[in-house]
Amino acid sequence: MSSEEKKGVKLYGAPWYLTVIVCLIILGTMFMGGLGTDMPSTFALMLAIGIPLYEIGQRLPIWNKYIGGGILLAFIGMSVIGTYNLIPTEYITSIDNFTGETNFLTFYITVLITGSVLSLERNILLKSFAGYFPAILGGFAGAILLAIVGGMFFGISPGELVTHYALPIMGGGNGGGAIPLSEIYADITGEGSEVYYSFAIIILTIGNIFAIFIAALLNKLGQAFPKLTGDGKTLIRGAEESDISDKTYTPTLADVASGLLLGLGSYSVGLLFSNVLLPEIFGFPIHELAYMVIFVVILCAFGIVPENVRMGAKRLQTFFTKHLTLLIMVGVGADLDLNELLSAITFSNIVVSLFVIIGAVVGAGLVGYLVGFYPIDTAVTAGLCMANRGGSGDLAVLGAANRMDLIAYAQLSSRLGGAIILVLASVLFSILL
Q: So where does this one cross the membrane (predicted)?
């Protein structure tokens, strides 16, 4: 590389030497005990860790081409750092709190939902959401079928494969899936809920890891076979030209602020329904983000949001997607304890969990294709985003698949799709246990 080429190299959008100096200052301050654990310090530390990992992943030819690139390496690298305490534990805790207690994850998802839904034209929006729930059910059916196939190699009964493998993985995460599933199990069997939960969370964690890696592989498959995927913003085949971001209007900072205000207002509506007006449907809790998606879809369907506000929301979402996804992958990685995962892994659990994930991908992708969707994008959202650990799992999967603009569909999978699985679980537990 010539001196001119070296001079032009950029890391995280800045000249490479400036980014390196900033990262070294942040890391040096941490190791010398001068960095705080407040939000600005944690934000800075996550970038200082994530940027080098991302840039390394982007520059490793085999890793970047076949496995998942910088985003996936940031996720894996941070789970290694957290597991083996390669930085002081108080900073691991602060990163965990940043995504958890401070709840940057929800703020991030709120911005992405608002921008991704409002960027779609009305007719495309309605068609895509109408065909989405059959794709979710297709993914669940595929997961059950391949779970039974995989379990045949180990002599596991079909009933146990459905109740203890397919349901936990496809249940919409931990708080909205494994925990209520364990309570349903206890009500039906009379055993303690911890009996079911202790196994379900292991299977769910294994499935979540597979979902992230397979999402990265599906992204590579889409690059190799472009006809199987769209532009990563809509599911319907041939609908790419209907995205408002293609229009010539350039949103102002006031438009961006208005888009943010609308997103926060929509999230508040979700909280109102989830906590006060309609917290349960048929006895099952509905998450505030599911209500938020529905509300934003209604706003878009009735065309009552001015175009400049829609464009502002889209502009803000684009900034978050391009420049802050790295923070999400670092935060999610810090939440994963590799030692706990490794101690619970058995060969049968690995194989059956992998079969469940593959079944979800094939089932969702096939049904998605039949209803006019791109199979890869449908497999990622209706398949893999059903088969992960809820909100954080959605972001990790979409980040690995480079499809953050599909967050609204992912949230429908985790939230409303997860509620559907709980209803089905009540029936299946009664029949199979």
A: 12-33, 39-54, 66-84, 104-120, 132-156, 195-218, 256-277, 289-307, 319-338, 350-371, 412-432
- Total length of the chain: 433
pLDDT in tens, 151-161: 998 999 999 99
Question: What Å distances lie between residue 381 and 135, 221, 298, 365, 398, CA to CA?
Answer: 9, 15, 21, 9, 8
pLDDT score for 240: 60
Two tokens, residue 228: 């199987």
Q: What does the alpha-carbon distance between residue 128 and residue 124 come to, in Å, rounded to a whole number?
A: 6
Predicted pLDDT of residue 338: 83
d(CA 343, CA 299): 48
Nearby residues of 120 by Cβ (< 8 Å), 6 or more positions away: 128, 233, 234, 242, 243, 244, 300
Give 153's contacts (C-beta < 8 A, 6+ positions apart): 348, 351
Mean pLDDT of 203-211: 90
Computed from CA positions of residues 329, 335, 338, 342, in that sequence, does the dihedral angle turn out positive or negative? negative
User: Could you give the CA distance from residue 392 to residue 106 in angstroms, rounded to a whole number?
Assistant: 9
Spatial separation of the C-alpha atoms in residues 408 and 412, rounded to whole Å: 6
Name the 3-class secondary structure at 236: strand
At residue 15, the 3 state secondary structure works out as strand
Q: How many CB atoms lie within 10 A of CB 310?
A: 28
Note the pTM of the prediction, 2 decimals: 0.82
Lowest mean pLDDT among 21-25, 33-37, 427-431: 427-431
Q: Which amino acid is present at 110?
A: T
Note the pLDDT of residue 427.
85
**DSSP letters along 280-308, please?**
EETTEE--HHHHHHHHHHHHHHTT-S-HH
Can you tell me the distance from the alpha carbon of 171 to that of 197, in angstroms, rounded to the nearest whole number? 12
Return d(Cα 325, Cα 323) in angstroms, integer.
6
Give Cβ neighbours of residue 365 (< 8 Å, ≥ 6 apart).
375, 376, 378, 379, 383
- Report which DSSP code applies to 162: I
3-state secondary structure 384-432: HCCCCCHHHHHHHHHHHHCCHHHHHHHHHHHHHHHHHHHHHHHHHHHHH
Asked which of 155-159, 242-246, 301-305, 345-349 is least confident by mean pLDDT, the reply is: 242-246
Which are the contacts of 248, defined by CB distance < 8 A and separation ≥ 6? none
Q: Are 246 and 392 contacting, i.e. CB atoms less than 8 angstroms apart?
A: no
Structure tokens at 319: 């900034």
The pLDDT tens digits of the residues spanning 213-246 come to: 999 999 999 999 999 998 887 888 876 655 555 5
Task: Report the alpha-carbon distance of residue 69 to residue 357 in Å, rounded.
Answer: 21
